[in-house]
Amino acid sequence: MKELALFLRLKYHTSHRVKFVTVPFEHVVTEILDKIDNAQMGVVLKRMMLRAADRVAAKLHIAALVTGESVA
Question: Could you tell me if residue 61 is left (phi over 0), alpha (psi between -120 and 50 degrees) or otherwise beta?
Fold first, then answer.
């Protein structure tokens, strides 16, 4: 993660304000592994990550989230 943050800062710091935010998710993953059926783990984890991202975005007054997923 630190390498990615450094890359983004070096590449875009002159034209964009770069802020790197991390969310500790180890306890969430552990709970999902303990309580969720294997077939649903990916969906549940993705939903929890989006919830966390939504809270961070609201706190930082960010209007949009970009996930990188295909919407086709």
Answer: left
